Amino acid sequence: MSMYYKKVILGLLLAFVVGFVCQLAHIPVPAPPVLGAALLVFLTSCGYWLTGLYLQRRETQGEAP
């Protein structure tokens, strides 16, 4: 498993733990309460991750960004 996949899995696990702790402590979750806004945050994170993978592969193939 590559380092990037480990970071993604760790990030998702951390997000789950933060949400779980917020629910137990009865405090508002630090995320948008609307599905569309939460999806936007998720897709922004995916875009950031995919761009990092793309740039890393270009670098290893010897292409300049």
UniProtKB/TrEMBL annotation:
It comes from the Bacteria. Keywords: Membrane, Transmembrane, Transmembrane helix. The chain crosses the membrane at residues 34-55. InterPro entries: XapX_domain. This is DUF1427 family protein. It comes from Janthinobacterium kumbetense.
